[in-house]
Amino acid sequence: MLKNFWYVCEFSSAVTQKPKQILMLNQRFVLYRNSDGQVVALKDQCPHRGAALSLGWVEDGCLRCPYHGWKFQADGKCIDIPANAPEIPIPKKARVDSYLVQEKYGLVWLFYGDLPPEKRPPIPYLPEFTDPKMRSIVADVKVNNHYTRVIENALDLAHVYIVHGNSVGAGLTENPRIETYQVHEEEWGIRATTKFVNFTKPKGLFRPFFRAKRTELTTTTSFYLPNITKVEVDFGRGKLINYAAHLPIDNQTTLSKRIQFRNFFTYPWADGLCRNYLHRVSQEDSRVSESQYPQAIPENLSADVHIPSDALSLAYRKLRQQYLAMGWGLDANPSHVKNRNGHSVLPDSPAFVNFSS
What we know:
This protein is α+β, with helices and mostly antiparallel strands. It has two domains: 5-117, Rieske Iron-sulfur Protein; 127-323, Naphthalene 1,2-dioxygenase Alpha Subunit, Chain A, domain 1 (Alpha-Beta Complex). It has four helices and 18 strands. Strands 11-17-16-15-14-13-12 form a seven-stranded antiparallel beta sheet, with helices on one face. Strands 1-10-9-18 form a four-stranded mixed beta sheet, with no helix packed on it. Strand 3 and strand 4 (39-43) form a beta hairpin. Residues 335-357 have low confidence and may be disordered. Residues 6-110 form the Rieske domain.
């Protein structure tokens, strides 16, 4: 797991004035909206007796603990302890970690790290999220494996013919070969484009949109640090674009927040059909991903056998190793890290900032 990046942690529509627990990075976070509609992100653990603040309630833009009613501001500072007499001062340690958040593209992004503002990686540019010609659906997919395996699965070009042979991969039956391609390095990610000149009809929902014989299909696969994948499929008559933010819940569990865009078959009533098909394809991936061992991708690049079609996933491994070597890795045991919110949490130094766009 990596620090110093913006992590998608939830869909904006799912965050309300009712506190919501988020499991990510081997930790518990709590999200809620204050009276101005801004998202607040705090550590989901009261410093008094460890109760989950997500079981509490919002009051005057602050969060009340469900156990003893301690009241915490958006910056994590406790401002009220009901059991105390008015003259008793609130302990300086009576505070919880707070986190920077942004809302963009209908998603809530949480910054996790210790970089100053001018050195933080940006939220990636995702143009389809603001394109009125695109119709979208969203889904949560839980995978019981390490997030690096889930990301690599999304970047793998050669598995489609086998794993998705009864769905999208059926169109590769005549020619499953992956021609040599080039990986392009970008400032905060990687990208590769491949072409399939003899793609036939897939099985399932999208079969009617492909020509009777053969279609030239162009696939552009991208990765944005720390955990976002994008697979864009252009088949001439339309585009299908699959984004996924792969949340590392812990070392054995990943929650993929998937957003699929299409510029064809854009009827609202078709959303349910598309969502069911997306779920079907996702389950095909999960079945294989959950069987992989070891669960995390090997740290040694030579531990696995690689072939030319693995160029993109190998580039991902190298990119990840680059940031681990810079000291941007997170301890697998969260109890070993003293402060994980990326800011100096001093008694009167707020660590919360909210942006909206």
